[in-house]
Amino acid sequence: MARFSAIRVAAVTLLMLCGCRQEPEALTVVGWGGSSQEAHRRAYWQSFTASTGIPVREASWHGGIDVLRRKALDRSAHWDLVQVETEDLLVGCAEGLFEPIDWAALGGRGSFIDAATNDCGVGTMQWSYLMGYDGDRISGAGPQTWADFWDVRRFPGLRGMRKTPKYSLEFALLADGVAVSRCTRCCEPSRVSSEPSASSTS
Known about the structure:
By secondary structure, the chain is α/β, with parallel strands linked by helices. It folds into 2 domains: about 5-120, Periplasmic binding protein-like II (D-Maltodextrin-Binding Protein, domain 2, 3-Layer(aba) Sandwich), CATH 3.40.190.10; about 130-200, no CATH class. The protein has 7 helices and 7 strands, in the order βαβαβαβαβββααα. The protein has helices at about 10-15, 35-50, 65-75, 85-95, 145-150, 170-175, 180-185; strands spanning about 5, 25-30, 55-60, 80, 100, 115-120, 120. A 3-stranded parallel sheet has the order 3-2-4, with helices on one face. A two-stranded parallel sheet has the order 1-5. The two termini are about 30 Å apart.
């Protein structure tokens, strides 16, 4: 079974430092595509190749733990580094789909933000959800809480959300008065599927 590795970068870099003359094997990195992948290419991948001589091949995907499971079973799969969302990282690490990180080779786990580290991965970016509305259609104070977001009587009109249960379940629970700590437990990856629906688009 193939496993995806976040330590591959350090491993191939060490080979270069040994003075080996063999042509370095290309590193395949998998991102989210679009402007996100373009930003990572400019910030990390191009400079990595320039400093190590190791070429980087790119691929993109739309997420999903089942995709990782299929790739892990496919011996022809050549994903070395893959950007995943937190729930896929947690489940994939627990199932042995990822290689555990050798933190000593990366300067120690303490060199990274604690909340962004996992046995099999490390955070590379963060984002937030913001609530926006059309001020021309809503007079006075607009929706301020998730309870307001779901209140179609006070704030009629369409809502726009991600087409998966991700985060939407937590927002609904918060609107219903459930404590944040309980929301997190209710929506653990082992209890909620993270697979996109057939109609999902990214």
